[in-house]
Each structure stands twice: as C-alpha cells, then as structure tokens.
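Morning run. Coffee first, then this:
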Amino acid sequence: MTTAATAVHPPEADENALLSVRDLRVSFPGKGWRAPRTEVLKGIGLTVRPGETLGLVGESGSGKTTIGRAVLGLVPVRSGSVTFDGERIDTAGRARRRALSRDLQVIFQDPYTSLNPSLTVGDTLSEPLIGQGADAREAGGRVGELLDRVHLPSDAARRLPREFSGGQRQRVAIARALALRPRLVVCDEPVSALDLTTQRTVLELLLEIQEETGVSYLFVSHDLSVVRFMSHRVSVIHRGEIVETGDADRITRSPDHPYTRTLLLSAPVTDVAEQRRRRELRGSPAPHEADHKAANETANAAASEKANEADHRAG
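And here it is:
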C-alpha cells in the first residue's frame, strides 16, 4: 500500500541529486544448495542531494544496511541502478571503485572492530591518503588536520585504538572517513554502540562537519529520534521496501504509513508533552480505512507468518 507521502520506485528524477538509487533489487542465496534466493531489497528508490542528510530508518532485518552496502559496492546488485554524480556505479569495476573511494566513504557501527588494533591512529588515517598517492609529509599534515576536525589531541596519532574510549574511537573512524574529502558518507548505525551522552556529542560532530564541508550523508539507523536529529529527509524501509519518504520533521512526528507510526510509538521519550501527544496518537483512528487495515496487518505480521509455517509443516 502507498500513501501520499510514500515514495514509489523508481522515484521522480532529481536533477540535483548527488546519489540516485532506482528500482534497486538485491537477493542472497538461500540456506541449502536447492533453496530459493531471498530477496532483501525489492525495488528501492531514493535520492541524496549535495549537502543533505537522508535518514534511512527501519527495524533490524528491514534491509536498510544492505542499501548502504549496495551503494558502496559491497554487495552484488541483482537489478536496478546506483548513480553517483551522473555516473552509474553499480557496475563499476575494482579500479573504478578504488578511485570512487575519494568521493564515497563509510562510517561503520562498531568503533571497536572497525579500526585495526595493531595500527596507530596516525597510520590508520595515513593509509587511505598514501593509497591515493600522497607522500609521508602530505599525509602527516592531513592527519593533524583530521584530528583537529574531530576534536582529538595531536598526540592521538601516536596511540593505538585500545587507548581510547568508544566515543573517541568513533571520532577516529569519522576522521578516517573524511581523510580523502568525500562528497558522500554512508553512516551505518554510527552511534548505536555508544552511550546516550556520547551519542549526542558524536551526532553534533557529524552535523558540524557537514556544515563546514558540505558533505552529504546517507544515515542508516533503527532509532527514529536519532534520524530526526540528523536528517533533512527520511525514508522508512520495511521488509525490503521503502514505504514512506518525506521531510524529516513531518515523517518523524506525524507519519502517514502505519509501519512508521509503529516505529514512532515504540521509540522511548522523556518529554511530557511528547508523551501526551503519543497517547493521543495511539487513541486516534487511522485517517483511512485502508490505513487501519494495513496497521492491523503490520501488527499481526509475525504471528501470521508463524501460523502459516505451522500449517505448512502440518500439511
């Protein structure tokens, strides 16, 4: 079902888009040699504009991380296209992908595993620079700039990752992603492994960097409140399909789609006024009968699937 705010695929052409994903389909082999393939992405369409953050939100297993990995060329695309700055990149070879790393970077979820524990921070930040042709002096100067940008002391370059807290490690990961001055960064749950206080400081750092550099973010998260804080626009993904796209404030406060409402109502809040508004939202009927039916289907999906599996086994 679609609603007025739902993004159909492919999306309307956006001449200003830096990244354009159209009718993207990704599938993985099933378990067992005769098992059918599992379709993870079912015709995804989205765009990211220069200097913009597009938040991509959904529950675990929705396919949101796979979208980011497809953009980065880390998973094979079955059909559809990924276009960056007017160039189709989903079919790019290894050499072209290496060149694209200047413009496309990623910040992974876990700062404890995304950094090589045997390399100093300086070596970690120098590695992509030297790989793109910088000499040691140029790389050293850039490392100092990067540490300053993420608010780490200059002596951090001589230290190993184990000497830093989780938040500091994620700052190092952010600095590494920025090393080549990319135009788009895929942020894959970049704060979900951090405590709430540290989350806030890292998110504010990402916003500060965007304001200073004009970098675009494809921001992947399961947390609607984090996506609201970071994003200009939001796309909501459910079971491999984007069900709603729109302005971040509207989507995260007054969504049209039943699944987005479920995400909104399940997110914890401390603000009394927001708690009251949510209680009112829970008690209000869906604006359309079809929406009400879809909400019931969403709430009962897991139970229905289990019942169908049980019937199949019994038969």
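The domain at 19-255 is CATH 3.40.50.300 (Rossmann fold). Good start to the day.
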